[in-house]
């Protein structure tokens, strides 16, 4: 099978984005298309990304340690 015919790998993570291997073209509900040429593209599933449909890690919540709060 030629390399371009191989399926792309998609990884659904438990608490973050969907990871897609290889270049990807994403068609949005309004018909617009977003293209990423990256080797691995992270797609937003939380809807909070400012770069939607791509993940900008907005889903992460930073928890401060007690030591950081004392400063």
From TrEMBL:
<protein>
    <submittedName>
        <fullName>CDGSH iron-sulfur domain-containing protein</fullName>
    </submittedName>
</protein>
<dbReference type="Pfam" id="PF09360">
    <property type="entry name" value="zf-CDGSH"/>
</dbReference>
<keyword id="KW-0001">2Fe-2S</keyword>
<keyword id="KW-0479">Metal-binding</keyword>
<dbReference type="InterPro" id="IPR018967">
    <property type="entry name" value="FeS-contain_CDGSH-typ"/>
</dbReference>
<feature type="domain" description="Iron-binding zinc finger CDGSH type">
    <location>
        <begin position="21"/>
        <end position="65"/>
    </location>
</feature>
<dbReference type="InterPro" id="IPR042216">
    <property type="entry name" value="MitoNEET_CISD"/>
</dbReference>
<keyword id="KW-0408">Iron</keyword>
<keyword id="KW-0411">Iron-sulfur</keyword>
């Amino acid at each position: 099978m030629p390399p371009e015919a191989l399926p792309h790998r998609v990884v659904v993570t438990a608490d973050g984005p969907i990871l897609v291997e290889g270049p990807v073209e994403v068609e949005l509900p309004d018909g617009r298309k977003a293209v990423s040429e990256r080797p691995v593209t992270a797609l937003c599933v939380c809807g909070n990304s400012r770069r939607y449909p791509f993940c900008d890690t907005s889903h992460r919540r930073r928890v401060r340690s007690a030591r950081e709060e004392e400063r």
